[in-house]
Write a structure and sequence with these properties.
6 strands, 3-stranded antiparallel beta sheet, 19 helices
């Protein structure tokens, strides 16, 4: 069967979208649905992929002509997260962070290329970090390095995914490498899956060398955190990309929102709560005390996963497989059991990431750094989708203040 025969007729599209035949042609006239002349000369035929995109938007409650953002990157369907149609949980077990990133970036030529820090940029980043106090969180350090790189790196107007991916690889590896080292990177624990980024990142977050299972846990956690539909930070970076902001600026902007007062405070609250619990036997007391003080217990439930966050389940399985501190793992398990007895939904990915940093005894703020560094891959992928498109149209405000001359 050739290409032409796979395209759909107007009647078939109308059935697929559950609309009238006339509405199909209205979508065409508004530029919402591409078409071309039928090879037999009778009517038009339609690209099935474009029709499916319209159908998907309808399933999410968007009318085909309404304002929305089309993306080929991540999909959440029936409790499963997919990257470009591939289950994220499968990639987390079978892929490296680097290869999963290249998949999202749509960079075929760059696939398999080593990720290397830029020595000049890394030295600059380390000099910048010397001005920060010792108590500065890892996310603050990552953001400062990204800002420095954005300030000195020459702008690149090439929207080719391979070109952007080359810049992104260098950027992310430089950001991580510039962080203060707490241990030495361990390379080669998994000969079949080198972990250059993951090994380096671990050495910046933990004061001891990792086991193979611990590297597997960090790798899986990062892959499951690369992208997640259209969060507020993702909306921001897509708009910034349309304005021509480069990869370093994209990461800096995303980090500002992704680790802002709402998201960042939640991540740290989960981590600090776990660290302040004295033992598994005091979990119920600690939870009750927090609730009586009017403070919520973050890290449980997710609006996109009413039946439980599958990312959290997978991360927690890795935490259980690599735990070298049985009492810390027991504390995590008791928190989950206690919350379940109280009728709360299962833990979400934020709790699972905090559990990893707690059980592995990583530095304070490690969970937030893992999330933002991982999500930077997704932000850049969304920027790639926007690069090359025309700038967003100028918006007009609706003034609602006092009229000039009003008393």
């Amino acid at each position: 069967m050739n290409d032409e025969n796979r395209w759909l007729t107007a009647d078939e599209v109308a059935v697929r979208l559950n609309v009238k035949r006339e509405t199909v042609y209205a979508y065409v006239s508004r530029g919402r649905l591409p078409s071309r002349h039928s090879p037999n000369g009778r009517g038009s035929v339609f690209d099935p992929a474009a029709v499916e995109r319209l159908a998907a938007r309808a399933r999410l409650g968007h009318k085909p002509g309404s304002a929305s953002i089309e993306t080929e990157l991540s999909l959440i369907e029936e409790g499963e997260l997919y990257y470009r149609g591939i289950p994220a949980r499968k990639l987390a077990e079978e892929s490296t962070v680097e290869d999963a990133a290249e998949l999202l970036w749509g960079s075929d030529q760059a696939r398999g290329h080593p990720w290397a820090s830029d020595p000049t940029m890394e030295r600059m980043g380390k000099r910048l970090l010397k001005v920060l106090p010792d108590a500065a969180l890892p996310i603050d350090r990552l953001g400062l390095v990204a800002s420095g790189i954005d300030a000195v790196e020459p702008p690149n107007r090439d929207a080719n995914p391979d070109v952007v991916a080359a810049s992104a690889r260098r950027l992310l590896m430089t950001m991580v490498s510039a962080l203060p080292a707490h241990s030495e990177p361990v390379v080669g624990l998994r000969d079949d899956r080198p972990n250059d980024l993951v090994s380096t990142f671990w050495s910046r977050l933990c004061a001891r060398e990792p086991t193979e299972a611990e590297l597997n846990a960090l790798s899986a956690t990062m892959i499951l955190s690369l992208d997640h539909d259209l969060a507020s930070s993702t909306h921001l970076v897509r708009s910034a990309a349309r304005a021509g902001v480069g990869p370093a600026g994209i990461v800096r902007l995303g980090a500002d929102v992704g680790s802002g007062p709402v998201k960042g405070a939640t991540d740290l609250a989960i981590e600090d709560f776990l660290r302040n619990v004295e033992s598994p036997s005091t979990v119920a007391v600690a939870l009750t005390k927090r609730l009586r003080q009017g403070e919520p217990i973050p890290g449980f439930g997710h609006v996109m996963y009413p039946d439980g966050d599958s990312r959290a389940s997978q991360i927690l399985e890795h935490v259980r497989a690599c735990a070298r501190a049985p009492e810390r793992l027991a504390t995590v398990e008791e928190v989950i059991r206690t919350q379940s007895r109280r009728g709360l939904p299962p833990p979400n990915a934020g709790f699972a990431i905090a559990a990893l940093t707690y059980v592995a005894d990583m530095i304070h703020g490690a969970g937030e750094a893992i999330f933002v560094t991982s999500r930077s891959v997704g932000w850049i992928a969304h920027a790639i989708e926007e690069y090359g498109r025309p700038p967003l149209p100028r918006q007009r405000s609706v003034y609602v203040g006092p009229r000039p001359g009003a008393e």
